[in-house]
């Protein structure tokens, strides 16, 4: 099955599933509204003020990733990578700002890697095997380009009238124990979610660990009941403090003023909406944009008063490697 950058399609695999399905349409409906009686796939960029894109199409058609062929790949624009010294300086500024606002700031960067070619089908299957509890996808968009990712984080899930979300923050690897820095970060994310859902009667679970390859995160589950639409809660929760920071306004302003790239779809959200069935939207993390001869991986981390710049740099390196090592490329 051949695709080019002029097509619009999503090939995806849900958490704990082994197979892939495809959703495709000639055009995206760029709108903040949707047909409540029709299934759709939604993609929402990070930046506020940008509208979600909806693909209204049948989403139960299976596909063998080995059949996917990408043609006429877009050329990479000017470099957006940030070297270690630049990133460390920005982290230091974020530490000082987090002290001033008594919160956290999430910084991101882009890591670029030259490639001769990429086997998309085998890469998707490798991501599926390496991250069984993540949402795996390949997005081909005439408007947004070609993206691939393996997101571990649910933004919001709906099962009839039962909703759930998760506070996911803090990263460790190997045998390292979580420190007060990670627990503080997790507490701010949980607090922010509870504030945003203050009009709902919510049930908050205990903090526990969640594995993502060699990485580990702190996670808290939150549940509530409502007859409102999933898009309402998605927009209410986005951007979570896990991808932007807390307090929301101050952290978001710092991100816009200090990051030298546009996040585009990174740390936005995407996923399935089924009016009469289970719907699940994911934060677009552990993702990359694919160009002719190049991959750009988007990574980030939460910065607070207890952060150490070199450790934060190492965290982004490990996040990038976790997905890059799963790719099959030349």
Describe the protein.
The structure is a single chain. The protein has 6 helices and 21 strands. The protein has a single domain (2-324), classed as 4-Layer Sandwich (Anthranilate synthase). It has helices at 84-101, 120-130, 180-196, 230-237, 248-258, 309-324; strands spanning 2-4, 9-13, 20-24, 29-30, 40-44, 53-55, 61-63, 69-71, 104-114, 135-141, 145-151, 154-159, 162-173, 203-204, 208-212, 215-225, 245-246, 269-273, 279-283, 287-291, 294-303. Helices cover 25% and strands 35% of the residues. It starts with a strand and ends in a 6-residue tail after the last helix. The relative contact order is 0.22. The longest helix is centred in the N-terminal third of the chain and has 18 residues, at 84-101. With 330 residues, the chain is an alpha+beta fold. It is globular and about 50 Å long. Strands 4, 5, 6, 12, 13, 14, 15, 16, 18 and 19 form a 10-stranded antiparallel sheet that branches. β15 (208-212) and β16 form a beta hairpin.
Map the helices and strands.
Blueprint: E1 2-4, E2 9-13, E3 20-24, E4 29-30, E5 40-44, E6 53-55, E7 61-63, E8 69-71, H1 84-101, E9 104-114, H2 120-130, E10 135-141, E11 145-151, E12 154-159, E13 162-173, H3 180-196, E14 203-204, E15 208-212, E16 215-225, H4 230-237, E17 245-246, H5 248-258, E18 269-273, E19 279-283, E20 287-291, E21 294-303, H6 309-324
Parallel strand pairs: 1-8
Antiparallel strand pairs: 2-3, 2-10, 3-7, 4-6, 5-6, 5-18, 9-17, 9-21, 10-11, 11-20, 12-13, 12-19, 13-16, 14-16, 15-16, 18-19, 20-21
């Amino acid at each position: 099955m051949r695709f080019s950058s002029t097509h619009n399609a999503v090939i995806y695999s849900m958490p704990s599933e082994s197979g892939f399905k495809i959703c495709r349409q000639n055009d995206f409906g760029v709108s903040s509204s949707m047909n409540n009686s029709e299934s759709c796939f939604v993609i929402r960029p990070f930046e506020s003020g940008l509208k979600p894109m909806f693909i209204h199409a049948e989403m139960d058609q299976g596909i063998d990733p080995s059949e996917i062929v990408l043609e006429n790949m877009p050329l990479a624009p000017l470099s957006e990578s940030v070297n270690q010294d630049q990133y460390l300086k920005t982290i230091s500024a974020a530490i000082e700002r987090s002290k001033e606002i008594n919160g956290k700031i999430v910084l991101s960067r882009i890591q670029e890697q030259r490639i001769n070619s990429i086997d998309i089908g085998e890469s998707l299957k490798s991501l599926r095997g390496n991250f069984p509890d993540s949402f795996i996808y390949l997005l081909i968009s005439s408007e947004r380009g070609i993206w691939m990712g393996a997101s571990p984080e649910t933004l919001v899930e709906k099962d009839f009238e039962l909703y759930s979300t998760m506070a996911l923050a803090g990263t460790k690897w190997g045998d390292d124990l979580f420190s007060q820095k990670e627990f503080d970060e997790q507490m701010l994310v949980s607090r922010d979610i509870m504030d945003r859902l203050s009009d709902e009667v919510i049930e908050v679970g205990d903090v526990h660990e969640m594995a993502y390859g060699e990485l580990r995160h702190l996670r808290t589950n939150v549940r509530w009941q409502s007859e409102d639409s999933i898009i309402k809660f998605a927009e209410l929760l986005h951007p979570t403090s896990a991808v932007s920071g807390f307090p929301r306004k101050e952290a978001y302003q710092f991100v816009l003023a200090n990051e030298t790239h546009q996040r585009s779809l990174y740390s936005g959200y995407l996923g399935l909406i089924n009016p009469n069935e289970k719907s699940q939207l994911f934060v677009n993390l552990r993702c990359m944009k694919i160009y002719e001869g190049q991959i750009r991986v988007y990574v980030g981390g939460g910065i607070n008063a207890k952060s150490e710049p070199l450790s934060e740099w190492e965290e982004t390196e490990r996040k990038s490697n976790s997905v890059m090592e799963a790719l099959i490329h030349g």
